[in-house]
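Can you please make up a protein's amino acid sequence together with its fold in token form to help me picture the idea?
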Amino acid sequence: MREELNQGLIDFLNASPTPFHATASLAMRLETAGFRHLDERAPWQTEAGGRYYVTRNDSSIIAFKLGHRAPIDGGIRLVGAHTDSPCLRVKPNPELQRQGFFQLGVEVYGGALLAPWFDRDLSLAGRVTYRRDGKVESDLIDFYQPIAVIPSLAIHLNREANQGWAINAQNELPPILAQLAGSESADFRALLSEQLAMEHDFNADAVLDYELSFYDTQSAAVVGLNQDFIAGARLDNLLSCYAGLQALLDASDDETCVLVCTDHEEVGSSSACGADGPMLEQVLRRVLPDGDGFVRTIQRSLMVSADNAHGVHPNYESKHDSNHGPKLNAGPVIKINSNQRYATNSETAGFFRHLCLENEVPVQSFVTRSDMGCGSTIGPITASQLGVRTVDIGLPTFAMHSIRELAGSQDLAHLVKVLSAFYNSHDLP
């Protein structure tokens, strides 16, 4: 089972270079499992035992099973994750022509580690909005092949590079796509028109706009002398999206179960489709009891916010509290912060720890050092928006926000097992 899950994750990562592609990939897997798409602009007809999913902005998705047990009696079980990862986004007027090279101006999305982006085989993917036959439409594109690179400056020309070199995102990150001959000029929108025609077999009248990201074409893989690790882009947080999906597909039809995978977490979640927006509450209000019944249902519910945790790095062990250094392949991590950067409390942490013990899943704890700042997740955001009890957890990883991250090859199976137990639990605290 572990090998099958890991290969499934690798396939999902490779198929999901952007939040748009991740959402499409999740939707395809849900459709295959019998989930029915609900259009937010149309009336909904749902029933106990039904399986449904909703998308917004093509980059966020909520999937749910309505249990035979009334949610007002048993509450709902929610697992939350996010579809976005730090990356380089193409600017609206990106064409740069310097020294005979065609480059694209980029904007850094989220808190990316920039150094690992150099000397990688990069491709480009995302959503393109265009006009065809007088109508405005959108489609996803993916160049798949390596079409760009950001070459490092040779050490001979920058002798201080290994002493810590501050990367200037404006000047040093524009990828090189091609060399231009003579007076040849670059037209990025023309390139996108050609890609649309190749992928979707039509000619657009005009490319109007786009949301496109560069990504590393190297496949995710199981690595290590004893295959102890999974290496790949966007493990934060597509790993949790995939684990939540597998658990939801395995859930019984007894209880109401929800998987929430939203965009824009890396930039604060404040958007129409982010965790700090109205999407989740609007969806739940359409399928749960009204008024007093809605509040009663939410207060009987619990959310597991699943986002990656910082594993203790052997080269930088001093960056962790000595009693709270999560290890790779030692199970999911309960994340705790007294200042509410995580939404975990003793009751929700205790319940998650109970689930792990009952299902023989190893479990760890993480608290950041008292002299360091703490990151956050969708957990506190969702808890404050919805009023739902929440526990923040995640799998330990290295190189978070790098172009290629590292997780333990045993941990995905641990996470799927405990999330499945959560979805199938009859009694919540």
About this structure: The longest strand covers residues 87-98. The CA atoms of residues 232 and 291 lie 45 Å apart. The radius of gyration is 22 Å. The mean pLDDT is 96.
